């Protein structure tokens, strides 16, 4: 489900040695009759740095994060690394009309369903 | 039971399983389910990085989903206080498949590494990162004293 090219620090190797790294952002996944909604926390990322891709039934979110200024580190609780996460998406998603927006460090991806899988209400007429 | 490596592997798996379940028990979101959106309290949210520059201490906090009005920044008795709440942004009428971004109420008191000029403190918010810049107090900046010949 999630793809983390992450920091595996087993206590023997300093994590610094891992070159290209990314962390999996926390996400919410919602669904209603019309669409599947994926919301991810990607602090420090603006919309131009986001790459949303759909291919072979997978959705890949990638976001580049630029370093946030110099100075001598006194405390470090988070690392400024890129974000990446991959999901398998169900059949019936209209890949052509997927849209994404970013606001306040959260990324919102809308995956609309194709008309065929949407529930349809059939009007019953009196005969 | 005397075991070979296979069973040893099994034991590790059991420990891992136990670990996950203990985490669930101590997670205070327990019992909330997707329907309820009780904010979660965590002493370590948001994650903060602190750097020192020549003339300031800079605190950066990861607060995705928060806008400029959603966080209170205070400087008091040698510490920096960050307080606020990230409300649930779950859309109505949707089924929940995965919920990793919990709503969170937070209050963090972070010690300041040195004296600061409380008047000159500035805070900015961009793309879910809060940056608080606290200029060092004038008295603590290095000062060069001219040596006069007598």
Describe what this molecule looks like in 3D.
- The complex is a heterodimer of chains A (127) and B (150).
- Chain A is mostly beta strands and 127 residues long.
- Chain A contains no helices and 9 strands.
- Chain A has a 4-stranded mixed β-sheet with strand order 1-7-5-4, with no helix packed on it. In chain A, strands 2-3-9-8 form a 4-stranded antiparallel β-sheet, with no helix packed on it.
- Chain B is built from 1 helix and 9 strands, in the order αβββββββββ.
- Chain B has one helix spanning 5-26; strands at residues 40-41, 48-52, 56-62, 71-76, 79-86, 95-99, 104-111, 122-126, 129-135.
- Chain B is elongated.
- The termini of chain B are far apart.
- Classes of the chains: A mainly beta (127), B alpha+beta (150).
- Chain A binds chain B through residues 26-32, 37, 39-46, 68-78, 102, 104-106, and chain B through 44, 47-53, 57-58, 60, 62-67, 89-91, 93-101, 113, 125, 127-129, 131.
- Strand 6 of chain A pairs antiparallel with strand 2 of chain B.
Return the string of H and E elements of chain A.
EEEEEEEEE
Largest sheet of chain B: 4 strands, mixed
Approximate helicity band of chain A: under 10%
Q: Give the oligomeric state.
A: heterodimer
What distance separates the N and C termini of chain A?
Answer: 51 Å
Record field, number of beta strands of chain A: 9
Q: How much of the sequence of chain A is in beta strands?
A: 35-45%
Main sheet: strands, sense, barrel of chain A: 4 strands, mixed
Integer-rounded radius of gyration of chain B:
23 Å
What would the average pLDDT of chain A be, to the nearest integer? 82
Distance, first to last CA of chain B: 89 Å
**Residue share in β-strands of chain B:** 35-45%
* Largest interchain contact: A-B, 31 and 35 residues
Low-confidence segments of chain A, given as residue ranges, are 1-19
Element pattern of chain B in H and E: HEEEEEEEEE
Main sheet strand line-up of chain B: 1-7-5-4
User: Structural class per helix/strand content of chain A?
Assistant: mainly beta
Structural class of chain B: alpha+beta
The rounded Rg of chain A comes to 19 Å
Mean pLDDT of chain B: 80
């Amino acid at each position: 489900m999630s793809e983390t090219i992450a920091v595996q620090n087993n206590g023997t190797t300093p994590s610094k040695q891992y070159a290209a790294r990314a962390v999996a952002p926390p996400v919410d996944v919602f669904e209603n009759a019309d669409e599947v909604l994926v919301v991810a926390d990607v602090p420090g990322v603006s919309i131009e740095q986001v790459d949303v891709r759909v291919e072979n039934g997978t959705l890949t979110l990638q976001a580049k994060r630029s370093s946030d200024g110099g100075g001598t580190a006194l405390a470090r609780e988070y690392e400024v690394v890129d974000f990446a996460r991959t999901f398998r998406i169900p059949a019936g998603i209209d890949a052509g009309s997927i849209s994404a927006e970013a606001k306040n460090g959260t990324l919102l991806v809308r995956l609309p369903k194709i008309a065929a899988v949407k529930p349809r209400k059939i009007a019953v007429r009196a005969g | 039971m005397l075991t070979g490596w296979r069973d040893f592997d099994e034991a590790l798996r059991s420990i891992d399983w136990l670990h996950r379940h203990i985490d669930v028990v101590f997670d205070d979101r327990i019992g909330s389910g997707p329907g309820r959106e009780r904010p979660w309290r965590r002493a370590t949210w948001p994650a903060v990085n602190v750097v020192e520059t020549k003339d300031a201490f800079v605190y950066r906090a990861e607060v995705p989903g928060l806008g400029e009005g959603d966080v209170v920044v205070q400087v008091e008795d040698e510490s920096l206080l960050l307080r606020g709440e990230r409300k649930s942004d779950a859309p109505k009428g949707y089924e929940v498949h995965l919920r990793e971004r919990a709503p969170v109420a937070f209050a963090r008191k972070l010690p300041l590494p040195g004296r600061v000029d409380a008047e000159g403190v500035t805070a900015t918010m961009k793309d879910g990162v809060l940056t608080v810049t606290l200029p060092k107090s004038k008295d603590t900046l290095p000062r060069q004293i001219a040596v006069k010949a007598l």
